[in-house]
Amino acid sequence: MNEHDGEIRILVVCLGNICRSPTAHGVLQRKLEDAGLDGRVQVDSAGTGDYHIGKMPDPRACEAAAGRGYDLTGLRARQVEPGDFKRFHLILAADSENYADLVALAPSAADRDKVRFLLDFAASPDQEVPDPYAEADEAFDRVLDLAEEAADGLVEAVQTGEWVTYASA
Hints:
Elements: E1 8-14, H1 20-34, E2 41-47, H2 59-66, H3 84-87, E3 90-93, H4 96-105, H5 109-112, E4 115-117, H6 138-160
Helix pairs in contact: 1-6
EC number: 3.1.3.48
Family: Belongs to the low molecular weight phosphotyrosine protein phosphatase family.
Keywords: Hydrolase, Protein phosphatase
């Protein structure tokens, strides 16, 4: 697949799909819209776990995101499924545990090649987005900082065509 095949599909994944991945989903969607790329890129989010299927993002994630102008309230948690590897060009893990779970779930070697870290697109030296679920409210701001940085990098990668170097050929 390459950038000329039509719509680019990106899936962001964390554990429960109520904190990190919906935050990154909302941030990336908004930044793509602002860059005029929303019609060219589809974003979704999911969790490797089945703990919160059908639920809204954590209220603290929604509140922190709203404070920066992002609306997460329309998102609902879902679990990653094997078909996602066929639907998405890039599958971006929030941390190494979810990365390993995604690689194990991937139906083929080509599908495993689609799995990357969300922060591969950030200038930050961090590789993992820390899970804020059991942390203080300030942890949600850190997730937003990292999501914004990764989203900026992703938007640039889409604009320049460099995103294909992260996706399976």
